[in-house]
Amino acid sequence: MLRDSVLEDGNLHKDSQDKNVMVEEEGRYNLEMVDDQNFNTNNGNKAREEGVKEINAENLFDIDTSLTNKGEVRKRKKYVLLKKKRKVFLFQNRVKKHEVKPPCKCKKSCSVQIGEARRLEINIKYWKKSFTEQKAFLSHFIDISSVKTRRPGNTNDSRKQFSKRYFLKNENGERLKVCKVFFLTTLGYAGKNDSILRNIDSPPKDRRGSYTKKKVDREIIQTHIKKFSPCVSHYRREHAPNKLYLPSDVTVVNMFSDFKKCHPGLQISYELYRTVIKDMNISFTKLGHEECEKCDAFLLHDNGHNKQNANENTDCDKCFQWLDHIKKAEMSREEYRSDKKKIDDNESLYYSTDMQKVIMLPRIDMFKQVIFTPRIIVFNQSFVPLGSISQKHKAVAILWHECISGRKKEDIISAYNGFLTGYARDKKSVYLWADNCSAQNKNWCFLSYLIYVINCDHIAAEKLTIKYFETGHTFMSADSFHHLVEKSMKENPKIYDFQDFLNAVQNSTKSSYIKEMNFSDFKHWPNLTTNYQLQKINKNRPLLKDIAVLEARRGSKCLYYKTSFKDVEYKELNMLSKKNTSLKDPENHTTDRGVSSERKNQIITNLSSLIPKHKLSFWQNLHESNAQNLITVVEDD
């Protein structure tokens, strides 16, 4: 079957092996963050990408039969072929079933009047016609007249009310009379099946495609979806605010179930509800399963181009860009694995860092009222060892919520500073793996910070190296730690306040270090470069998106970079403007960021009956301000 042949494809098998290796590498967490099921569910796309060599009824309806992530049978059908191709096949299959049948053996010698070649020609032309045209053909070549002769008896009870005569044209265009069996078998019908000949005196209008779908007011669905507070992502800020994310305690199934309860008189399908969510650009991306837009764009750009023949399409820019993208992804993954094998010399740290996806408090999802209340966002910038977590190499979580500070680039830098000046303070060399998110890890403010921190007296490091994954292929140890945090929260489903969240993170592993950030831990980190400096001094400076490795060295006020992991030598980046070479300490925040009075009062009013009194004080003591709502707004950096 087609699905089995796709699974046996060498490249797909290789991808599965790579994913298994990834799981094996993070095996210390006993996780299966990336599994073969996710590849099985993409078999349809794989088949479309490669093209179906042989179409038959068996592989046409070979639906993806893999189980869901919960181990349940998949309900929604996912066909191998696109709908358009399925329609073409169904038409071809219908024509094949109605090929010319053996002729009659009547005394009229119909076969002598109209030969087999002419019969085949008539059959082909007939099945090229539309439904209405076929009815018109039958009406034209069948004459209907009154019954000429009846047997003696009660003629009113006779079922035969009229007589029919059948005609076909020969090669010369002459209209010749034939028998009923010959007429039917020439058109491809069985000789005894005359159902097609009924009601031909007034051919009915073809009603196919004329059904008007019942239109549903999608604004009702959109309003219901918005009640779940889809949030602007801090994880992929370059797409914000166009891309929204829902907190991890919300699922489409639960949302649809609630919609049916709220609108019992409005009958809609699960697929329509799911489509509206997609149209609103709301994502349910899972931990460790980041969507790669470049790979998706490649698969869709040309049906004739796929992973197997991309090398051959030398004149296709999309194929060339995708090959370069995959090459960079493979090199970064190989470098990541190499760093994992580095011998521990007690003076170096090899960690990955990432911010956990949307988490909202309070988190007591068994109560629907909580989900519909505009909660506050919690941030977890995690620093996790590439090797196994232990007392010697702990997972470090830098934690705060939006009432303390936001998610601007200077807030992310403050989280880096909390790790480097705290847990990593005494290490001589620090290596950090990060994703390619420009809002978090690749901006001139962050690069300015690297020069500042390596030359300050707050850490012992002589060298600080940042390595970047290729966009869309960023699975790392931090993702595994985030999974454990999520698992810990599910095991303790009632997380009423920030302290409960701190406890859940602390209990996610036996060896973890958490740092609760206060407003004074956040600083106003400046951008120490200027456009003049970048353009005048560095005539061949790289684009930030092209940098693969960054290195800061003590005693130097320049950065050093590579644009590829295969590069041997670093290139120098002189980015500090002359007036900023003194590297002054930045100013601290002087107060909490706060939350609007309206949101605070709404949380207390709606949830005070659900939250224990001794934990309600956290919400009552939140600092009030005119701060922007981070659920729907991106802060101005």
Automatic annotation (TrEMBL):
Taxonomic superkingdom: Eukaryota
Domain DUF7869: 428-525
Stretch list, region Disordered: 1-20
Pfam families on file: DUF7869
InterPro entries (UniProt xref): DUF7869
Protein name: DUF7869 domain-containing protein
Species of origin: Brassicogethes aeneus
